[in-house]
Amino acid sequence: MEVKDIKKAFQEELEPVVIEVKGAKSAAEEAKKASDAATEEAKKAAGKVDSIEGEVKNFSIWQKSKDEADQKNQEALDKLIEDSQKKNVAVGTERKHFRDLLAESIQENAGAIEQFASKKSKDVAFQMKAVGDMTLISPTTFPTANVSVTDLRPGIIEQPRRRLHIRQLLSGGSMSGSHYAYVKEIAGEGAPAPTADGAAKPRLDLRLQEVSVPAETIAGIVKVSRKMLRDVQGLTTFLQSRLPEKLLRAEDEQLLNGDGTSPNISGITDAGNFTPFSGASQIWVEQLVEAITQLEEADRDVNGILVRPADYATILLNRASGSGEYDLPRELVTYVNGQLYVSGVPVFKSTAANPGQFIVGDWVMGANLIIQEPPILQFFEQDEDNVQKNMVTVRIEETICFPIYGNDYFIVGDFYGATT
């Protein structure tokens, strides 16, 4: 064969191979394009997955925050219900602040006050329709924006208010008569015991005693000018800023230290209303634990300890005698949300408490603050030299009763080495 024929024959044999290679190349290019497209889609899908994971993470964070908020709200609601039950107030019942009730009462009687100020009537008196909260711990700011005396700084710069009043630790109630009577069980004789067939059964002597506690009045007066009396808004601001605090401080003293000789109330530290502390420890926090145990041994529910703020701080700052480290045992003493607890019992601080003294008690069941007459404001022109000096006497008073149901509801003691 000639070279020409050989070349032609070779080309004819090679041509299908070339076509096949070209086809394979084309298929490879198509496959590469498809692979690139798939890779791009995978990247987009991965981005969407990352985005979804981020959203899931953010949702988880939001859910956790929501659950914590729901828990706090539930705890606050539970505390509100518990406090309402302790104070014999149904949940949902509106309890207005004392100054709000006072302001409403003055506004409702504004006409009568103006007539009295203009000498069109001889006297004026009014009583609040409900007993106010009177805690004076409300976060509501003192209103002074509408004071009409433009030459003076708005509001009254007054003395500090007591942060905790004794009535805030007690359950409340009401009465209509001059005495509050109740029946309590006193020590009897006998007890149940195993008894054989045919034998006489043990006899029990359950003794009951009726007790009557008188209501007593706490009152005070203040003199204001007739010019101020004509300005109802100014009078409201003045009266609601100070008189309730003065009344409550006198009430605190009576609830704790009244000697029971009329017109004084028989307070917690009055003889027969408490059990003296019998512990032997000289370490303050241990004294409190011993007092708690002493009350629990009498089958009482210990729900509060009352001390002075300075003694409260001394407990917190307890140091080891050798190293000087703060060494209150964590299992015994805790401090949660600004509240000190000793052996699970909350410790309350108030300047109403006696220096160096502690009271460990069943404040819920041991006593009640019974209101016979809520705070009343009354105005008098005929008093001393009011007419000469154009003054008016304003009186605030309340009538309350304080039954303490036994001498084993409160333990009273003195901190070792404290200055009383």
Automatic annotation (TrEMBL):
<feature type="domain" description="Phage capsid-like C-terminal">
    <location>
        <begin position="150"/>
        <end position="414"/>
    </location>
</feature>
<feature type="coiled-coil region">
    <location>
        <begin position="21"/>
        <end position="48"/>
    </location>
</feature>
<dbReference type="InterPro" id="IPR024455">
    <property type="entry name" value="Phage_capsid"/>
</dbReference>
<dbReference type="Pfam" id="PF05065">
    <property type="entry name" value="Phage_capsid"/>
</dbReference>
<keyword id="KW-0175">Coiled coil</keyword>
<dbReference type="InterPro" id="IPR054612">
    <property type="entry name" value="Phage_capsid-like_C"/>
</dbReference>
<protein>
    <submittedName>
        <fullName>Phage major capsid protein, HK97 family</fullName>
    </submittedName>
</protein>
